[in-house]
Amino acid sequence: MMDFITAPLITFIVFASIYGLFELFVRRRERMAIIEKLGDKFEPSMIEGKLNFGMFGGRRFSFSALKIACLMIGIGLGFLIGFVICSNCIPGYVMGDTNYRAGDVISIIYGACLFVFGGIGLLVAFLTELKYFKKKE
Description:
It is a single chain. By secondary structure, the protein is mainly alpha-helical. Helix content is 74%, strand content 0%. The protein is built from three helices and no strands.
């Protein structure tokens, strides 16, 4: 069914893994060079109070749950709106009497609704996050 996507997908996975492997070694070499340069001139007073250890340093608030929730709500609304559009506009959709051409239209409607409402969900999450940080300041 999805034979047209397997070749590009496998090619992407192979090239992404090769790129990731090279990037890993290059970053390691860069870090080692930085450590060697700092080794001669390093004094502990240079970094005093400048290190932030992520979740241990300060209280950070993560919006990942909000983003995922808004995305899922958007996808659900996309399915629902796509079904309503298909059942009202395509004759015989509910009874299963659709032909191949109608199947193409149905897949386009569902895909468009999923992307539109998923994007709206992420936009709502972004605006909520922005509002929270403005209120916090």
